[in-house]
Specification:
Elements: H1 2-7, H2 13-36, E1 40-42, H3 47-63, H4 68-89, E2 92-94, H5 99-104, H6 109-117, H7 120-136, H8 146-152
Antiparallel strand pairs: 1-2
Helix pairs in contact: 2-3, 2-7, 3-7, 4-6
Length: 153
């Protein structure tokens, strides 16, 4: 049973590199957008790396292969302690009067953040999958690619 758990994290070196690059870029974009929109931000810039590479990438590897609703449920469950502790100890900073507080209320901010960031692993996995598919068919004529044949049928 424990072996099956650890098998979920297996990845080829190229898959792992692609996954790390995609999720690090997503992390930088999300933190930058959070600052720009005055929603929330990490206290220190390096937290993007520790959070996205040390937590989000393993979570994404764990949920890949599951259905989208199950991926989302697992991610919500995993992000609850991360978000709650991050805001409680001040390593994540919510801006006063941010748009989420304005719409959902100050007491619901963390719940809304959890619901939103839980979408990151499933979306990131789709991006990784698309990049890997494009790289696999680099140099292959379009007519020979499986997607082109299925679309023509």
């Amino acid at each position: 049973m424990l072996a099956a758990f650890f098998r979920r994290f297996r990845a080829t070196p190229s898959e792992l590199v692609t996954t790390c690059v995609v999720f690090f870029c997503i992390g930088v974009l999300m933190n930058s957008f959070g600052k720009w929109a005055r929603i929330a931000e990490f206290r220190y810039w390096w937290q993007v790396g520790t959070c996205y590479l040390g937590f989000v990438v393993p979570l994404a590897l764990f949920v890949r292969g599951l259905s989208l609703p199950l991926q989302y449920c697992v991610c919500v469950t995993a992000f609850i302690p991360l978000e709650v502790v991050g805001y409680a100890i001040g390593s994540s900073i919510a801006f006063d009067g941010n748009p989420f507080e304005a719409v959902f209320g100050i007491r619901n901010f963390t719940a809304v953040m959890v619901a939103g960031v839980a979408l990151i692993p499933p979306i990131g996995l789709r991006i990784v999958e698309r990049i890997r598919t494009l790289r696999a068919f680099r140099g292959v004529p379009r007519a020979v690619r499986p997607s082109a044949r299925s679309a023509a049928d």
